[in-house]
Specification:
Elements (H helix, E strand, L loop, with lengths): L11 H15 L9 H4 L3 H8 L1 H8 L7 H23 L4 E5 L6 H4 L7 E6 L1 H13 L9 E4 L7 H6 L10 E4 L8 H14 L5 E6 L7 H16 L10 H10 L2 E8 H9 L13 E7 L3
Parallel strand pairs: 1-2, 1-4, 2-3, 4-5
Antiparallel strand pairs: 5-7, 6-7
Helix pairs in contact: 5-12
Length: 293
């Protein structure tokens, strides 16, 4: 579960936010146009991320070793948002963001008229985010419905049913950039709860850490990343065989509508970029649909 940092370091939720803000402010043709990302940073991080020279020297793709995983994160979020737009055009009016962290969709996408956005995440993360939204220099186009849940300890279904969310209506769920931090048991339990909240015709879009083959360079990079997040108290806890993960979906009545990987993200969102930004590690994304029984 992505958590907040402290006075001396950023947590994974804030670290991802910093990367999104730098990309949105300085990258040519941002993959995710996210003006709210910088607003949710602390003032000292805002000053740093607004400095174009700091970006050029430390955060540009050719200087930052983390750009390869940032590209996966950005591409996955864009992939989810594209799916939400398709669902909205199909008449779906409920969107649930699981492990929302500092996601800003609910603050900036009022153009999807009538779409009700529910953010599900750890109470500590949500409390901090709400403070940052209240202190921002711009006014949100709308506010999401905050649904506090600790996936390792709290029932998702109980929390969502206590909110205005209607499980009898079709919905779209996204679960991005979160599953590696959860145990397989917590992932399976939460997935079963998600399926139980989805009316027929609802959709779930997610990514997960798979057992895809790695080059030596990718393995070294991911090993370094694992050590880094573990040192922050947020270790990776799961890695799935694709067949095993898809079997888990099927057991919960979810049929695969689309599979995507890092190559698909590269083709859709990063082809021909002048800054050379590209996903640099394997990615596994799935869109699944709740079919009528």
């Amino acid at each position: 579960m992505a958590k907040t940092g402290d006075a001396t370091r950023l947590g994974t939720a804030e670290g991802a936010l910093l990367g999104r803000a730098a990309h949105a402010l300085h990258a040519p043709d941002p993959v995710l146009d996210d003006p709210w990302a910088v607003e949710l940073l602390l003032p000292r991080e805002q000053r740093s991320v607004r400095d174009a020279e700091v970006y050029r020297q430390t955060q540009a793709p050719d200087r930052s070793p983390t750009s390869r995983i940032l590209a996966i994160s950005l591409g996955s979020l864009r992939y989810a948002e594209d799916e939400v737009e398709r669902c909205w055009k199909d008449g779906i009016r409920q969107y649930v963001i699981l492990g929302a962290g500092f996601d800003t969709f609910g603050l900036r996408r009022a153009d999807l008229d009538g779409l009700r956005v529910y953010e599900v995440d750890h109470p500590d993360v949500q409390a901090l985010k709400r403070e940052r939204v209240a202190a921002a220099s711009i006014v949100p186009e709308r506010l999401p419905e905050y649904v506090p849940v600790d996936f390792e300890a709290t029932a998702l279904g109980e929390a969502l049913r206590a909110s205005p969310f209607d499980p009898g209506e079709r919905s779209v769920f996204s679960w991005m950039n979160t599953l590696p931090y959860l145990t397989p048991e917590a992932t399976a339990a939460t997935l079963a709860e998600i399926a139980g909240l989805m009316a027929p015709g609802s959709r779930l879009v997610l990514n997960y850490h798979s057992t895809a083959p790695l080059t030596d360079e990718q393995r070294e990079f991911l090993d370094d990343l694992k050590r880094s997040v573990a040192s922050q108290g947020e270790p990776f806890q799961s890695r799935w065989e694709p067949a095993e993960f898809e079997s888990l979906l099927a057991r919960n009545g979810l049929a695969i509508a689309e599979r995507a990987d890092d190559g698909d993200l590269s083709e859709r969102y990063f082809a021909g970029r002048s800054d050379g930004m590209l996903p640099g590690v394997p990615a596994s994304l799935i869109t699944a649909e709740r079919r009528a029984e």
